[in-house]
């Protein structure tokens, strides 16, 4: 146990320095990373498709696990690498695309996970249902002034594929996400 040896020597030689070192280690220790679940749902009559919660606040290092409950969906970042879509995740962040999830939960192939390390706002979509407003938003740490905070079509010179109106309207406001932590999908709480 090399670390303990070092600490022992410090404790013998300089108790106050050792105390300061230990206190510093305790303060610097980040909260353990958490995993949050988001359900990808199609209503029984097939009319409604949504992610629930549709808005989520997490901390850097946390993971989101999407679960395909009914229907067939993807979990895809708004990013030019994904079908030339508008960049709506932090510039330094890696885009992701689950591809079509193959089965319904709990069968294998029904979940997708992504770990978020760069703070900021992340918008994502379901490729088959983007036009129906199946999108979600995740705030990692503090929102910062990245692409996800900007108005839609903020860079027309790129000729990115526009975010459809129903998708724009389905994305919850950043302030609401910061306040609530998790914003439930309206359709998830509707009685049908
Ligand atoms: Cu979908």
Keywords summarizing the entry:
192 residues, alpha+beta, 2 domains, five-stranded mixed beta sheet, 22% helix, binds copper (II) ion
Your description of this structure?
The protein has 192 residues and is of the alpha+beta class. It has helices at 2-13, 15-28, 165-170, 174-180, 186-189, and strands spanning 35-42, 49-52, 55-58, 63-68, 76-77, 111-115, 120-125, 135-140, 182-183. It has two domains: 1-30; 35-190, Immunoglobulin-like (Sandwich), CATH 2.60.40.420. α1 (2-13) packs across α2. The longest helix is centred in the N-terminal third of the chain and has 14 residues, at 15-28. The structure holds copper (II) ion. Copper (II) ion binds at residues 40, 49, 73, 126, 128-129, 134.
SSE layout:
Elements lengths: L1 H12 L1 H14 L6 E8 L6 E4 L2 E4 L4 E6 L7 E2 L33 E5 L4 E6 L9 E6 L24 H6 L3 H7 L1 E2 L2 H4 L3
Parallel strand pairs: 1-4, 3-8
Antiparallel strand pairs: 1-2, 3-9, 4-6, 5-7, 7-8
Helix pairs in contact: 1-2
The protein binds copper (II) ion.
The site of copper (II) ion (CU) has 7 residues, from loops.
Molecules bound to protein: copper (II) ion
CATH-defined fold name of the largest domain: Immunoglobulin-like
Average pLDDT rating: 88
What would you report as the Rg, rounded to the nearest angstrom? 21 Å
Ends distance = 59 Å
The low-pLDDT segments are 9-13
Please tell me the CATH architecture of the largest domain by its name.
Sandwich
Largest sheet: 5 strands, mixed
How much helix, percentage-wise, in residues? 10-25%
Strand content: 15-25%
The domain count comes to: 2
